[in-house]
């Protein structure tokens, strides 16, 4: 089997398990710990991981590009690895000290001070998260096997040790072991190949500063919502928001991976100045995104009550409206990825990407500060959707300046029409006395069946045919 096929299989395994893991673990934890327990853990992890993100200094993104570019020279690879690790170790130590000072200085953290300090290990050990190195050398096998093994172990621990509401501290420790376990295996794997060196780090400072700016700005509107809910509302609101956002975003990797699998390397079309071929490929890629994302949005909107009940329990009923507000995110984020990372980045427009992200960050932070104190998790959901929409719109604006690419709204309308039978089915089922599990299962099966039939037989979607064919060929 070729290396490309092996990498595809292991990447597919990892993506699939990353989707499956929260589907299994979160419902169990949510039903035992409730919104307050889940909220405590999610806030502590989000707060700590934000500091870890700052300590990373953009290395996970910059590192992949640097390592892949020097992959032909093993000495250069290890030299770059050592230099980036040196920077990361220094930043990890510095940011850990800052984190401890913050936790010890503010009364807000005193009730769970021990858990906050324990979670600081994520920051201290963040330098050992070197998936970027393995991605750069295209060793997806190690990434997949290691990640799946650690997640299975943490899942077993979850079922054995988390039994009552007061076990939220054990749930947090299991989450920490899962994160740190991955990192420790990483460091053991590369320890004999790399040596720490600060001699050649100067050349990395400028590109890292640029990548760091984009990363922090992006995280401000993708991670900060949970932290702000914790500050402006309470643990229960954090728990409710966490349940809805996890379910909303769980399908997004599948949508994005479809585009990655089927879409050729757009950068070569920019380099070759082949405008017509580029537009053809982009139209096809746009249709791939829409055909997958639209039904996901509709499903989340109309099945939110059943999804929340099945995956989180009746204690999370207040998260239903939150999830319905967040339901457009699948389409908005997928289109943002298309415009930003399939067009602007290959076209060398990193500056435009940064401007778009900073714009979204400003709106997100402003809206969250205004809406969370009043509307709690629902306010954060509205702010999230609006800011993601602003970022995607900014990407679109800059794309129109890069290439003369016209969007046809026909695919969106056709895909919405293909969802109409499902909407009718759901409205009919609501008149019946069906339990949530039966309602969700039957609705999902009928939705997929009706959507595929309409796409293939009535709309005669060539895009869906190509999508299915591509997965069939790749899986051989």
From TrEMBL:
UniProt-listed Pfam families: Polysacc_synt (PF01943)
Domain of life assignment: Bacteria
Main localization category: membrane
Stretches that traverse the bilayer: 12-30, 42-64, 85-109, 115-134, 143-162, 168-188, 208-233, 245-264, 285-308, 320-341, 353-375, 381-400, 412-428, 434-454
Keyword match Glycoprotein: no
Keyword Membrane: yes
GO cellular component, one term: membrane
The entry's keywords: Membrane, Transmembrane, Transmembrane helix
Subcellular location: Membrane
Name this protein carries in UniProt: O-antigen/teichoic acid export membrane protein
Species for this entry: Mucilaginibacter frigoritolerans
């Amino acid at each position: 089997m070729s290396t490309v096929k092996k990498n595809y299989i292991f990447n597919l395994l990892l993506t699939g398990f990353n989707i499956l893991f929260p589907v299994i673990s979160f419902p169990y934890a949510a039903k035992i710990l409730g919104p307050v327990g889940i909220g405590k853990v999610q806030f502590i992890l989000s707060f700590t991981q934000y500091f870890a993100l700052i300590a990373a200094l953009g290395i996970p993104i910059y590192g992949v590009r640097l390592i892949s570019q020097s992959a032909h020279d093993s000495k250069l690879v290890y030299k770059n690895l050592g230099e980036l690790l040196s920077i990361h170790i220094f930043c990890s130590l510095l940011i850990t000290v800052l984190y401890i000072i913050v936790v010890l200085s503010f009364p807000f953290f005193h009730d769970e001070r021990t858990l906050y300090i324990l979670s600081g290990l994520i920051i201290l050990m963040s330098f050992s998260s070197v998936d970027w190195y393995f991605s750069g050398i295209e060793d997806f096998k190690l990434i997949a096997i290691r990640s799946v093994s650690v997640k299975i172990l943490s899942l077993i621990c979850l079922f054995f040790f988390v039994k009552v509401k007061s076990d939220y501290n054990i749930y947090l420790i299991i989450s920490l072991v899962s994160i740190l376990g991955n990192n420790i295996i990483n460091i053991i794997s590369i320890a004999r190949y790399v040596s720490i060196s600060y001699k050649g780090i100067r050349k990395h400072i400028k590109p890292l500063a640029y990548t760091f700016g984009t990363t922090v700005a992006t995280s401000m509107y993708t991670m900060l919502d949970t932290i702000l809910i914790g500050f402006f509302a309470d643990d229960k609101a954090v728990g409710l928001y966490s349940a809805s956002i996890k379910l909303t975003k769980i399908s997004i990797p599948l949508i994005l991976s479809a585009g990655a699998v089927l879409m050729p390397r757009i950068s070569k079309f920019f380099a070759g100045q082949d405008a017509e071929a580029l537009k053809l490929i982009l139209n096809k890629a746009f249709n791939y995104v829409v055909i997958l994302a639209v039904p996901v949005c509709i499903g989340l909107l109309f099945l939110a009550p059943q999804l929340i009940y099945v995956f989180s329990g009746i204690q999370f009923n207040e998260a239903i409206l939150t999830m319905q507000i967040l339901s457009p995110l699948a389409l908005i984020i997928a289109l943002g990825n298309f415009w930003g990372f399939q067009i602007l980045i290959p076209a060398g427009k990193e500056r435009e990407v940064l401007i778009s992200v900073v714009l979204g960050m400003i709106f997100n932070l402003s809206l969250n500060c205004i809406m969370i104190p009043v509307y709690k998790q629902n306010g954060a959901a509205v702010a999230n959707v609006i800011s993601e929409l602003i970022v995607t719109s900014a990407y679109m604006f800059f794309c129109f300046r890069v290439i003369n690419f016209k969007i046809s709204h026909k695919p969106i309308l056709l895909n919405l029409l293909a969802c109409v039978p499902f909407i009718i089915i759901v409205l009919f089922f609501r008149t019946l006395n069906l339990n949530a599990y039966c309602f969700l299962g039957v609705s999902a099966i009928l939705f997929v069946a009706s959507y595929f039939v309409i796409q293939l037989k009535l709309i005669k979607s060539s895009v869906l045919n190509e999508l299915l064919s591509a997965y069939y060929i790749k899986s051989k």
